[in-house]
Design goal:
Layout lengths: L6 H49 L1 H42 L9 H17 L4 H144 L5 H8 L2 H12 L1
Length: about 300
């Protein structure tokens, strides 16, 4: 490490950083006090809102209960409307299935009886080929007709079920609409009271929100100052560490210079035959060549 660095300038920066950190701590403390004031004011107003609600608990509970009941009725109505939609779609599809079917005025039993008769004729009597073909074609036609009649009867049965279900649903819808209207009338009885309570709460809430916003703004300033404080503190630690190491190096450098002067002084004494002090002998001992010179002088 070089010892030519201007420690004075570095120490000036250290002093400046310490002053800056002191100012930052003061600003942070002032802002924290301000933020605490806003939090207290906000919390006091929130407590006032709770007090208003508690003082009007009975009315608010009644209104809440009526609204929940009305919401439940609306949900049920939506379910029924959706079911009506599904039934109408199913009804239209069923009608499409039997559209164009021409069904004569004959019952399933009559058709089944005629088909059985034909089968019996073919099975028990000798018939000419052309007669057999005619009977086969008749069986085929009657079988298709029987299928169409059964299909129409099945569709008609389902259509009657759908009509019955839709009638029941429409009756329930009418009842639910009447219930919903009754709930609206109940709410109207409490509307004035509710609006007064709501106005009180909103007035207090606006003030509380204002204090909360002021708290957020001040807290943001604190965060910025904290970031600045951390940077300044890191820089201060860095400079202090640098100065400490630099001073340690300077001390070591001065010690080396002193030892070097003492060694040169000891060598001069040896050359002139002078007597060495303990410190001078110690300085020579740390230098191998100088110590060899000392040993030659003393042994000679």
């Amino acid at each position: 490490m070089s010892v030519d660095v201007d420690i004075g300038k570095i120490e000036e920066e250290i002093y400046s950083l310490r002053e800056k950190l002191s100012e930052l701590r003061q600003k942070i403390a002032a802002h924290e006090e301000e933020a605490s004031k806003y939090v207290s004011q906000r919390d006091a107003l929130h407590a006032r809102i709770r007090e208003i609600k508690e003082n009007n608990r009975e009315v608010l509970d009644i209104i809440r209960s009526i609204r929940e009941e009305a919401r439940s009725i609306r949900n049920r109505l939506n379910e029924l409307f959706e079911r009506i939609k599904q039934l109408r779609e199913e009804k239209a599809k069923l009608r499409e299935q039997v559209t164009g079917l021409r069904i004569p005025n004959i019952s399933e039993e009559e058709l089944e009886k005629r088909i059985q008769e034909i089968d019996m004729i073919i099975a028990t009597r000798p018939v000419r080929p052309e007669e057999e073909r005619r009977l086969f074609e008749e069986t085929k036609r009657l079988t298709k007709l029987l299928h169409d009649i059964r299909k129409k009867n099945t569709v008609s049965s389902r259509l009657r079920e759908i009509t019955d279900e839709m009638t029941q649903i429409k009756e329930e819808i009418q009842q639910l609409k009447e219930q919903l209207n009754a709930k609206k009338q109940e709410l109207d009885q409490y509307r004035d009271s509710y609006e007064k309570i709501r106005a009180q709460i909103m007035e207090v809430k606006e003030k509380a929100d204002k204090y909360h916003q002021q708290y957020i703004e001040v807290n943001n300033k604190i965060q910025l100052l904290e970031a600045e404080r951390i940077l300044a503190s890191s820089r201060l630690v860095e400079l202090q560490d640098f100065v400490r190491k630099l001073k340690e190096e300077q001390v070591k450098s001065r010690e080396r210079m002193i030892k070097e002067r003492m060694k040169m002084q000891a060598i001069q004494k040896l050359n002139s035959g002078g007597k060495l002090t303990f410190e001078e002998m110690k300085a020579l001992l740390e230098d191998e060549q100088a110590w060899e010179l000392f040993m030659r002088k003393t042994s000679g």
